[in-house]
Amino acid sequence: MPFIEILFPTDFSSASEAAGRVARETAVQTGARLHVVHVVPTATDTVLAAETLTRVARNLGDGLTVVTTLLSGWAEMNIVDYARDKRINLIVLGTQGRTGVSYAILGSVAETVVRLAPCLVLTVPAALLVAQPGAAPELAAVFTATAPRQCLGCHYRGNEFICGSCRIRIRAEALER
After folding, report:
1. pTM, whole model, 2 decimals?
2. Separation between Cα atoms, residue 103 and residue 24, nearest integer Å
3. What's the CATH class of domain 5-145?
4. Domain ranges of the chain
5. DSSP secondary structure, 50-83, as one string
């Protein structure tokens, strides 16, 4: 499958920075256009976000075509709608932009995008990216395994702070209130 249009949604976090490097390398290697998108919450001042988005795109843009877009509203749906509207072939986004209790109650943007996206989605966990000294630029990062964590709700050992079962229970309790 050729990649012609690649979407890199960013929240300006370290997870997004890692995803941006992967998105850039993929776009360079495939000759794809790179769409860099940031979504601000409704009724938020967009001046700082616009400046930061321009700086991020400038840092990624050497040697490729970059399109920047600033959107407003819910990040998940804006990303999915943008991908559908622009006929995106690949979405590259970072994980761990939201953590802790917020993640347990609301879920992650990446998780929702993976479920609803009209195209392939590559998630890049910032915590797993480790620079490999002396590697070729296209292989500048390797993924390493992390130790299993213990669920804060039921003590299940897995890769999440809150397991799926506890997340569902917490959401249901929040909705009942």
Report:
1. 0.69
2. 27
3. alpha beta
4. 5-145, 147-177
5. HHHHHHHHHHH-TTS-EEEEEEES-HHHHHHHHH
